[in-house]
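Hi support team,

I submitted a single chain yesterday and got back a structure, but I'm not sure I'm reading the token output correctly. Could someone confirm the output below corresponds to the sequence I sent? I've pasted both exactly as they appear in my results page.

Thanks,
R.
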Amino acid sequence: MKSPTIRRSPDATLGAAVAHPLRCRCLAIFADRVASPAEIARELGLEVSGVGYHVNALAEAGLIEEVRQRPVRGAVEHFYRAVVRPITSTEEEAATDMEKRKSFARTTWSLITANATMALQAGTLVERPDHHLTRLPLRVDEKGWKEMTEAYMELYERVYEIQAASAERLGENPGDPGISALSIQAFFETPEESPGVNLWLEPPAAEQPPEDLPAA
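Hi R., thanks for writing in. Yes, this is the structure output for that exact sequence:
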């Protein structure tokens, strides 16, 4: 008999979505392209049932969405992609309600965590000595906050300029595959005291995959 689906709070869902290594790998793949559990299983050399379990968990968390289906030998193959969140201006963000802002943040942090977990496991996160990874707690006034947000937007635009120039050079040199990389920017207000919410909760026991499913 199939166990009933356990619904968690949105904040707990964030931790559960990236709590398993295979789930991280699936989410990172869906962020790059449309794929099915069967494709991912073949690519990773795993059982479809194990991959399908974690894909279902990502779909339940709202981190991926089904985009099409394909009949395959009497069955239906489902294809998914990561939920795409548009870049919004300060004015658009101000007009968005808090729950939608939280939903955007959960999706973005889940993708970042999945990408970083894979890069750390593969060793590429710190392979290059000129990589950048910093955490800097700050205390600023309102003027400083505004200046910081403007500085981050300027960097965001500069990163896109560099990406466009790189794409042009790579197009002129088909023999150069380029370097797969990820740029992450974050600047946000932190609470003065811990709110007592653990966003990295392990999934409940009933949500753990069966023991015979692969861990990675």
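A quick pointer for reading it: The domain at 1-129 is CATH 1.10.10.10 (Arc Repressor Mutant, subunit A). Let us know if anything else looks off.

Best,
Support desk
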